[in-house]
Amino acid sequence: MIYDVTVPITNTMPVWPTDPPVQLLSKSHESQDKTHIISLTAITMGSHTGTHIDAPFHMIQGGKRLHEFSLDILVGKAKVLEIAALRAIGRAQLEGLKWDGVERVLFKTENSAHWQDGKFYEEFVYLEPDGAEFLVQRGVRLVGIDYLSIDKFHSLSHPSHFVLLNKNILILEGLNLRRVQPGEYTMYALPLNLQDADGAPARVILIN
Fold it and tell me: What is the mean pLDDT of the chain?
């Protein structure tokens, strides 16, 4: 079974309040031989739109850019963990779970139910810095969550970003895991091949 856990890109999708809005503008022109119309779309959006990957350079001056990471981090076994009825994910919620062999973890929370709200959801579930530190200690290489930031909304210092990105752990944000059950999957998270980028939108699928 293939699960597409990518948020569709539309003009009305929620984006981070300080990010550029999405603008998909349909355009067309007549072919040179005048036998048909050629359609295309002009696209304007930020690099952290919808389902996207954060590279260290997103927060860290001199940090690694997205193109400097091997695709083997973005393709492979991933564990979906469901964290229910909590606003924040900390060490206490993670310590009792099984982590042997886990290199990529995707957190499924109540966030996934809010992609259809029609507006930005400010009370999204986030990862506490001590939870991020725990994941570093467990050797995780990629951390995903099902809304637009791994840190709390209105966070001034973005502590969980810094814990992970300082260790070159990629962050996958903006997933929609509503139809995915907890468990192990093969993940393909392929970002646009932007050079020198702080991050990029990605198409993400899970296969079991």
Answer: 97
Burial of residue 4 (number of CB atoms within 10 Å: 0-12, 13-18, 19+) = middle
Beta-ladder partners of 40: 27
Residues annotated as catalytic are 58
- pTM, to two decimals: 0.96
Q: Are strands 142-145 and 104-108 parallel, antiparallel or unpaired?
A: parallel
Q: How many other CB atoms are found less than 10 A from the CB of residue 159?
A: 18
pLDDT in tens, 56-74: 999 999 999 999 999 999 9
Question: Could you tell me how many residues make up the chain?
Answer: 208
Q: What is the pLDDT of residue 45?
A: 98
CA distances (Å), origin 83, targets 107, 111, 118, 193: 7, 10, 24, 32
Q: Burial, 106: exposed, middle or buried (Cβ in 10 Å; 0-12, 13-18, 19+)?
A: buried
pLDDT in tens, 76-104: 999 999 999 999 999 999 999 999 999 99
CA distance 190 to 193: 8
The pLDDT of residue 17 is 96
Give the CA radius of gyration of the chain.
18
Domains (ranges, CATH) in the chain?
Answer: 2-8+47-207 (3.50.30.50)
